Amino acid sequence: MNKTCDIFICYRRSGGGYETATMLHDRLKQRNYKIFMDTENLGAGKFDEELYRQIDNCKDMIVIIGPNSLDRCQNEDDWVRLEIAYALKNDKNIVPVFLHDYKFPDEPFPSDIDKLRIYQGITISSEYMETFFKRLQNMLHSKRYMPGRVKKQLLFILLPVIILAGTFLFIHNYNKQKEEKQLEQVSTEILSEISGGVINGNQLIGTVQDVNVAWKKFYSNLLKTNDPNEKAKLKKELIQYVDFKLKQISDTTKIPDIKLTASNEELLAKNGISTQDIKAAKMMFITDIEQTQDYLSRIKTWINTPEMGWPGQLDEGLDKLAAMTIEMINGGIYAFNELMIEMPKNSQKVFNKFRPNMGKYTAQVDYQAAKEDLEAKQNGSKEICNELLLGYSSIVGNENIRVEKMKNKLDSLKADKKKAQIGAIHDLRIDSMKKVVAGKKQVLQQKQTELDAKKQVLKESYQRILQKCSLDKNEDPGIMWGKIIHLAQFGYAQIKTENNYKAENGRLKEEAKKNGKNPNSVGTMTAVISSKQVFQEVQKRLDLYLAYNKTNDPDAAIYAPAAKRYYQLVAVQKAAPIGVLIVATKDNQQHPLLRIGDVIVEKKGEAVNRTDTYFNLSEKAGDNVQKLIRYVNGKKTELTGTVPVDCKILVGVQNLWEEK
User: Fold this and answer.
1) Does the structural domain 7-139 have CATH classification 3.40.50.10140?
2) How far apart are CA 199 and CA 251, in angstroms?
3) Nearest one of 418, 412, 398, 402 to 518, comparing CA atoms
4) What average pLDDT does range 204-223 have in this prediction?
5) Where in the chain is the domain with CATH 3.40.50.10140?
6) Mind listing the pLDDT tens digit for each residue in 38-59?
7) CATH number attached to the domain at 574-655
8) Least packed by Cβ within 10 Å: which of 153, 269, 270, 645?
9) Cβ–Cβ contacts within 10 Å for residue 166, how many?
10) How far is CA 204 from CA 72, 201, 456, in A?
11) b/e string for 585-621 if b means 16 or more Cβ within 10 A?
12) How confident is the model at residue 394, as a pLDDT?
């Protein structure tokens, strides 16, 4: 313990603290940092002095904090409290590392450690581990060290190079300054164009909100009157208002004209700025305009539809469509924010003049935001849109049922009409029946048109999901994996939709049979987007994931094919949507029970849906019995085993499903 280190790791042994501290120690040591981590029992006397000496000499203290890590800090002799208090007193750089999305409580800590809550922390995530370490290294004051032997070797080898490099230093600096100025100019032009698109989005949100309010006022007034002339007047006024808003969109919205030369693309890519995201911004703004126009057009369609054809959920359906449109536009801010933080800081100033015109957005641009946080917010926004989309899809399904019932009723009316005596002239019953048939036919055609339009919206939304879940080889592996499980989640939602349709089709056939009709004459409902094609896209992305990561992560050659087989079985409903995937073992050690590629579905008698659940169950009393699925040569095998108490081999796990 006489060795002096730059980074001191403070942790509580329970609640995953020891395992996390060990992992941080090993990973940072591999990156050539000097780390101190107490692995012995704390004692008295000289050991305490040595502990304080290590804190005196360190530049950084990493404090690992889980849900119960600070509970015992109320005790004055608690060593975690003493270590933190001593570091605060000596103005050390403290980096809190949070486990399981821990947040500081509102209640104050003891006075000697209460300042801990003002330090910026970072949450550890198994999904974004590489990104986590990049952020951690940026927050540390300590620098990597170079072993003495390596220093001498490099000095001998590089001395002539250093002398030669001095000759070119001035030229290099001049070229660098020129490049930085050019980068700032290009970035400023791009941000200026995109910022204009963001302001368009603000206007579009306002348009959707205004028309939604106008619709609700119209709908309320329509229900209050039975006068046909008054109803016609209300409809005409709302159509005129919607037409005015559509023209306003056409006249005032300007699609950003983002032009990138080959040299500019090369310059941006060289500086880590995604040209793909820049090009996608234009498509995003076009989609915002089209989605808003689509919402307004659907309002007009419903107004022109006879009221007898309005479903009971009409008002709810239009609310969902309005909310989905607004959320799609609002969620674009996170993608814009992600692009902006990649740009030079001076060029970011161009956006500040646009900020006052963003009052309709609930999302705001944060120059200090971390990329993974913005990715999480984008995923959250996508989840909201998907929920609204699925809700809207449900209404489409209900409309499908209505169309089928109307078709059956129309067929019945036609049959009754044929039975009427041919010689009957001006029979009031037949005349009445003709009117009913004609009215039902008109409504049926209108409903079919509306249904087709809704199906097209779903298809377009699905294409946007596929585009958002496309993989880029330069992305962090954790982000790639997040896109894959997001798409798998959508695929499973389609399985549930298909099962609902299958049940409803069966019910309609039984109903037809009871009424003496041919069950095969009943129309069959099918899902707009098949789960089979969604899971085929999941398979393609897993192949890309392996191709992009097999060099840096050799274990991907084992767990990616296992994930493929798992999702194949889920797609045909031969595996349940549950479990986490084993993707690594510490130092490639062989675990007594688990293998890379295993899917853990149960631990200590409880179902495992998320990595957090898997690790939290380690604290539960009882034998560590785990139920798992293993794929050997593509064949599924179910196993149950107990992890020995003395097993210290850590495993890395990945989620297979999103939280919802």
Assistant:
1) yes
2) 15
3) 412
4) 90
5) 7-139
6) 764 444 456 677 788 889 999 9
7) 2.30.42
8) 645
9) 9
10) 53, 5, 21
11) beeeeebebbbbbbbbbbbbeeebbbbbebbbbeeee
12) 63
